[in-house]
Structures are given as structure tokens and as C-alpha cells.
Amino acid sequence: MSVTPSKSMIRYFSSKMNVRPRQLVVDLSRTSGIYLQAGAMQWMSGSNKLSSGIKGIGDFGKKFIKSTVTGETTVKPEYSGDGYLVTEQTYRHLILLDLNDWGNNLMIDDGLFLAAEKSVDLSVKKRTNLSSAIAASEGLFNTVLSGNGYICLESRIPYKELIIIEMVNETVSIDGPMAIAWTSNLELTVEKSGKSFMGSAVSGEGLVNVYRGTGKILMAPLAGKLKIRDLPKSG
Fold first, then answer.
1. Is residue 82 part of a domain?
2. What are 77-133's pLDDT values in tens digits?
3. Contact status, residue 88 vs residue 23, Cβ threshold 8 Å
4. CA torsion, points 48, 53, 55, 56, in degrees to nearest 10?
């Protein structure tokens, strides 16, 4: 309701397009605790405890290395108690996933992590094939969430617009880094879209990310930059 005249038009069209700030609300009494992205907490109520999640100098060193290779923050604070926790506002879409639906092992793209239950283990996994890091817009390491429990990711597009691809001993090729999360047992490589460089050039695609095995992929079809050919033609 607190809209100034100078911003009224922007706010009006934003409301029609579901562009609005969102917050994650956690009832800590219903879980053993959560990990939260550093700096994401806005306020808490009740008798809650906060810890750094670091167990000594050695553990800090390991987490510092993880943060260096994945781009995530070194420390992910741990919250537990019997009250509520509310995160800072974000214009990204909040996606809640149950790891049981993802084979209890999910690899995520950098910058997606917001929160996870403490029953979920956070680790780093190196790509099995260096080509997937060198030739594609991907890092050499990714954050892996494993175990049982819920996780919350921040996505640029809403969950209903994401595509879930289920694979059973199959191969899926994706042009560009559109897969934002996938079960970590899948093998990821980067290959030519055609059998030869000439074939790739003719197809206009070049290199593609190739996933093999049995598992699931969460794909954002709007990832990547808008191309001129994607714009509607006038008239």
C-alpha cells in the first residue's frame, strides 16, 4: 500500500506479473535445526540458538576451501530452537525440495543455496570429467546436498516454469548451463552437438552439456541470455 506516485506504474505492473519480494519462514520447533546462507536471516522469535557451524580450525579450513572452489560463503550459520526464523526479502523465487524425491543426493548450481535442514549434509564434489568445467560455463566443483530433509533454493524463475527430466539409463543433451540441479550420480560431460566440428557448426549449437545415467535434472528453460532470434517480430 505504501507506493509513491513516481513508482506507482512500476509497482502496478510488477504486481500483475508476480514480481514481488519473498521470504522463507521456518518453524524451528518442527526440525532439529537448519543451515542458512550467511547474512540471510532477518528476524527470529522464541528460544533459538545460533552457532557458526564450524568445529575448530581444521573444519574452518575445509569450509574455506569449499567456498573458494564453489563460490558459496565459507560459513553457513546453524539455527535451532522452538521459535520462528524469517529470512531477508528476495525477488527470486523460493523452491522447496524434499531430497527423498531426488535420490537423497542433489548437485546444485552456484548461488542457488538458501537453506537446508541439519539432517542434510553439505559437501563439495569435483567433476568427474574436466571437459564439463573447461568447455562449458560450469565450475570444476559443485555443492552437493545429501541425506534426508528439505532444502530451499533461490531461482530466477518460478518452480512451475522449471522442467523436471527423469532419466532411466538415458542420455540428455542441453545447450548451455540451463540445468540448475541434478542428481549427483549422473555423469556430466561437454561434447560437440554433431559428430564433427563441421556438423556442430552447421547445427548452430556447438558444444552441449551431456548427462548420462539414471536420475533427474531440474532445468530452467530461460537460463542464459536472450538471443535476437528469440525476440518477437514486429507486425
1. yes
2. 999 999 999 999 999 999 999 999 999 999 998 889 999 999 999 888 766 555 545
3. yes
4. -110
Long-range contacts of the stretch 59-67 (C-beta < 8 A, 24+): 66/123, 66/124, 66/141, 66/143
Number of domains in the chain: 1
CATH assignment at residue 94: 3.60.160.10
CB 178 within 8 A of CB 172: no
pLDDT in tens, 127-167: 655 554 554 455 567 889 999 999 999 999 899 999 999 99
Q: Show the 3-state SS of the chain.
A: CCCCHHHHHHHHHHHHCCCCCECCEEEHHHCCCEEECCCCEEEEECCEEEECCCCHHHHHHHHHHHHHHHCCCCCCCEEEECCEEEECCECCEEEEEEHHHHCCEEEECCCCEEEEECCEEEEEEECCCCHHHHCCCCCCEEEEEEECCEEEEEECCCHHHCEEEEEEEEEEEECCCCEEEEECCCEEEEEECCCCHHHHHHHCCCEEEEEEEEEEEEECCCCCCCCHHHCCCCC
Please indicate, yes or no, if residue 156 is contained in any of the structural domains. Answer: yes
208 in any annotated domain: yes
Which residues form the domain of 222?
23-226
Classify residue 227 by burial, with Cβ atoms within 10 Å: 0-12, 13-18, 19+.
exposed
**Single pTM value for the model:** 0.76
Q: Would 1 be classed as within a structural domain?
A: no
